[in-house]
UniProtKB/TrEMBL annotation:
Region (Disordered): 1-41
Family statement: Belongs to the VPS51 family.
Protein's GO biological process: endocytic recycling; Golgi organization; Golgi vesicle transport; lipid transport; lysosomal transport; protein transport; retrograde transport, endosome to Golgi
The protein, known as: Vacuolar protein sorting-associated protein 51 homolog
Amino acid sequence: MAAVTAGSGAGSGPAGSPEATGGSTGGGGWRRPHGPLQRYYGPSTAEAAEAAPDPTDINGPHFDPEVFMTKVRNECPLGQLLAREAALGQEIRALDSDMQTLLYENYNKFISATDTIRKMKVDFRHMEAEMDDLAANMAAISASSARVSAALQDRHRRGAQLAGVQALLRKLQALVEVPGRLRCWAGTEPARALRCHARARAVLRHYRHLPSFRAIEDESHAIMADLAQRLRTRLRLVARAARERVDRYLRALQTFFLGCLGDVRQALAAPRPPGKEGPGLPDLLATLAASVLGQLKAVLAYVQLFTARDVAFASLPYFKGEFCVTAVREGLVVAFVRWLCRTARGFADGPAERGAPAAPPALLLLLARLCLDYENSTISYILTLTDEQFPPQDSGPAVTPGPALCAEARAAAQRLLDHYVQVQGAAVAQMLRKSVETRDWLGTVEPRNVRAVMKRVVEDITAIDVQVGQLFEEGVRRAQSSDSSRRAFSVYSSSRAPGRYAPSYTPSAPMDTHLLSNIQKLFSERIDIFSPVEFNKVSVLTGIIKISLKTLLECVRLRTLGRFGLQQVQVDGHYLQLYLWRFASDERVVQGLLDEVAASAAHRCLDPVPMEHSVVELICERG
């Protein structure tokens, strides 16, 4: 069996052939083909196939002698087996010879190695003993380290507790010192005092159920209340200064408005060279309104510097709310608007100073239009602008509502327009009064033309119509009859007969003319002479005409007329009828007043013989 095994290691076959061994070295031994390149590139495909488990590979890790012998007996003939046995015997003898030679050559080395191994075993046992001692020491050290770590942790925990106690003591000490610090900083550093109180307030409130903390909190609150009062007092050296500046701006606005009014009066009174007209009323009104509004905007811009972001006290509600509402909105804007309305109304209500010129009617008309524009749009715009630049606080003081200011402006405009009608009506009435009072109505000659004063009245009314039309709308007129300008002007009513006014009339006549006149008044529409006028041209002219004709009526009632005086009144009345009806809102107003003038003249006439209507028309057309 040994021969078979040796022969199979060097003979042919899968495991012992020379091809499988890959050659021999110079010493005749077999060398496995392993190297760095094979380890780097890995085994080839054939090597990988050979590396599979093979129980017949005598040099492989999976060699099985039984399987190998069974295969050899089954595959190899007897002659080959014998040859393989002889070859294996030779190899065994050669290997034994080589082993003996190797043993002889390395005997001393084997002896030295054996001694060395023996010493190493002894040393290893010593090292094991030392390692056991070291392990025991390490265990002791670990136990000591655990005890030290526990001690350190306990010390750290106690240190943390001590630090907490110290921090709590510091906080308590700080809380105890809060009143003193507040009292010290309240006079010199109020901001620092406020920060200190803000930090301590929450803690004091949380522990206020304790008597000591409640005492500290009460004392701190008292100190802060006193500080707040002192700060409010100081904020009032500021609010008062701001209010004084606002009052100065208000006086500046008032002075500016009075200067603008002076310029307007000068422009209205300036003489006009022939062929050259000055600025009209619309231009003067636009200039005045724009100048005043622009000056008010400039003043608001100056006042807004008090509420700038870089001003420390500007953001405080205590100052900002009161300043924006009380000082700016009410004390400046509302006060100026009210003063403007009072000043404008003063031209109508206040008595003129002795020697001072009265306000020209054109100025009254212009101021009335200015106040009306303020009521319509300017006041709303000014208040909106003020509220945008100086927003009021929700819980601030009450403000003057816009409709209240608009009502004041409208009342001022109404009073000015009424006064304008009275002034212009009085001017026309003064001409009519003088023309009646200075004429001899008993000794006058037969009328041949219209008196010059009547022509002047129509011219003045026309000029007033042009003047009022520059600033106010036309207005609504009542539908006119088709023959308004050609209406017959009679000194008798429809119920009277001319024969009743014959020279033979005596007071004992059956029907008194005064009674007839009174009966006629009962059925005629009552005319209110001094009723408020509306804001339009027709209403203004109607008011002036009513005042003028009413004055003419009263003057005629106080005179005694002859025949020609009655006829002159007839001619003048018809002339006024031809031209004045177109200026009035209702022609019946003019007709009614002129009828009363004619009736009064007939009543006061000693010889009431009227002129033929055709002659009256001819004279008026020629005039």
